[in-house]
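Ticket #4471: structure output looks truncated?

Reporter: J.K.
Steps to reproduce: submitted the chain below (326 residues) through the standard prediction queue, then opened the result file.
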Amino acid sequence: MIQSNRYFSCTMNKNEKNVLVTGGAGYIGSILVPTLLREGYSVTVIDNFMYGQTPLLDCCNDEKLTIIRGDVRDEALLKQEVPKADICIPLACLVGAPLCREKPLEARSINLDAIKMLIDLTQDGQKIISPTTNSGYGVGEKGKFCTEETPMRPISLYGKLKVELEEHLLASNRAISFRLATVFGISPRMRLDLLVNDFTFRAVNDRFIVLFEAHFKRNYIHVRDVTAAFLHGINNFDHMKGQAYNVGLTEANLSKLELCREIQKQVSEFHIVESEIGKDPDQRDYIVSNEKLESTGFMPAVSLQQGIAELIKGYKIIRRNTFANY
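Returned output as attached by the reporter:
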């Protein structure tokens, strides 16, 4: 759902019809692209389909969709496609701390260098809406909300690359940076390695979980609300450009233990065990304020509990733990 106040318009500019989405067949893209098509945009997707899933098949009948199987690091390809776009949404990314740690060279070339190249190929009048991450906050101060003014102290290579990318995005003066919370929910290109998705899968299938550093907190946002945020950014670009915005559920600043207890409300047989031995591979621990984005008129529509219910239903279909980035 996209909501607006009197200062912000949610009417599509009819002269801006062409959207380039790199990584458009990914977890977020496979929700975003069909939504853009329904809104009347022509969409070009560049994706290498590296995970072997088959999203966007149900969109192939739409004449407004162009799919290019390609690599976002291909300069000739970007030089061909970027000038055609009114709006660029660079989603192609090696997402998450574990994957970037395992593939650091690929992470830098895809998550930073390729998007810097895209930025350099755009001109005044083109719009860039880019996801970054609130993981750049690293370890926050207890009880203190991280705002867009909070110093960035990323821990992981993934976070560091996203923080560096944001500097280039905002310096271009034709971009909005959305610092996404941890995303959850069902998508045609499903991921089970995201925290809510992972814990709910374990609850449904294993009925138990062992938590390391269960007190670590982070913020969450549903994948459909991420799509709504992108549309909100497009429709209110002139008011929002050149700035970063946290994108998350204000009521969902939860520790891992608190998250498991929310899942337990819907999966009563789910047993939670805390362990004193072991270390979370992702050492993020912070709470986030989403007030800045909310002040522009945007409010998420999907609650954490609704998302968990959706996942439980989806896991009657998904039975294999192969839908992951890492």
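Triage note (M.O.): checked the attachment and the full token line is present. The first strand starts at residue 18 and ends at 22.
Status: closed, working as intended.
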